[in-house]
Amino acid sequence: MSDTKVKKTNKVVKFFKDLVSETRKVVWPSTKQVINNTGVVLAVCALTGAVLFAVDALFGWLVGFLK
After folding, report:
1. Above 60 in pLDDT, residue 1?
2. What is the DSSP string of 33-62?
3. What's the pLDDT score for residue 38?
4. Are the CB atoms for 37 and 29 separated by under 8 Å?
5. What share of the chain has pLDDT > 70, as a percent?
């Protein structure tokens, strides 16, 4: 193998070793935190959708009223 190919292989191996090392350092949230955060995200998405629907309906009504 050429010297550059060995260097590239070593870089790839080092990358994955570092990846595993950093992944082990992560403080993962508990199941309760994940469920709570998921609920918050879904609620905010539903609220945003409702507000956008209301604004769209209002503008649709206004455009229809002006015709």
Report:
1. no
2. HHHHHHHHHHHHHHHHHHHHHHHHHHHHHH
3. 98
4. yes
5. 91
CA distance 56 to 48: 12
Q: Which domain holds residue 29?
A: 3-66
Phi, psi of 35 (to 5 degrees): -65, -45
End-to-end C-alpha distance for the chain, whole angstroms: 76
What type of residue is 29?
A: P
Identify the pLDDT of residue 51.
98
User: What is d(CA 42, CA 31) in angstroms, rounded to the nearest whole number?
Assistant: 16
The number of folded domains in the chain is: 1
User: Whats the size of the chain, residue-wise?
Assistant: 67
